[in-house]
Amino acid sequence: MKFAVGVITVMGVLVAGILGIIGVEPGHLPEPEIVEVEPEIVEVVAGPQTHTILIAEGSSLAGCERDDACYIPHTITINSGDTVRWNNPDAAAHTITSVTDMVPDGLFDSGLIMIDASFEYTFEESGTYDYFCIVHPWMVSSIQVN
User: Fold this and answer.
1) Is residue 5 very low, low, confident or very high in pLDDT (cuts 50, 70, 90)?
2) Residue-range domain boundaries for the chain
3) Element (H or E) spanning 71, and its range?
4) How far apart are alpha carbons 121 and 108 in whole angstroms?
5) CB-count burial class (<10 Å; 0-12, 13-18, 19+) for 35
6) Global pTM value
7) Residue 19: which H helix or E strand, with range?
8) CATH architecture group of domain 50-145
9) To which H or E segment does residue 78 belong?
10) pLDDT tens-digit profile of 100-116?
11) pLDDT digits (tens, 9 = 90+) for 46-67
12) Smallest Cα–Cα separation from 85: which of 112, 58, 47, 55?
């Protein structure tokens, strides 16, 4: 019987120790170690993008310039290396012609963009690029390239 009581006592002490019922003096606890972890920085670099500008329907008639509504959106800001696509859903043909002081500068010129056709240009350098439609000179806009 003493053996059984001894085994039960030893088992009780072990279980109590495992369950944390038996206290440990604070001086006997190891100091917690603070480990600083460097956060992982993931840089997402977007590649060149294509932006779409619509030549507004009805813009072949003067008046769209009063509300900056000849192109939708009227102006945009893009990054160097990005491409701009102008779509023409209008019933008239248009051009997208780069200008400096309202004079064609030869940087880009779409020629006539017929109904439901488009023109694309990739901007490689930062700056402000003005353009207009030769056929409808009130259709003026610009693109800002960062």
Assistant:
1) very low
2) 50-145
3) strand 71-72
4) 7
5) exposed
6) 0.69
7) helix 2-19
8) Sandwich (2.60)
9) strand 75-78
10) 999 999 999 999 999 99
11) 789 999 999 999 999 999 999 9
12) 55
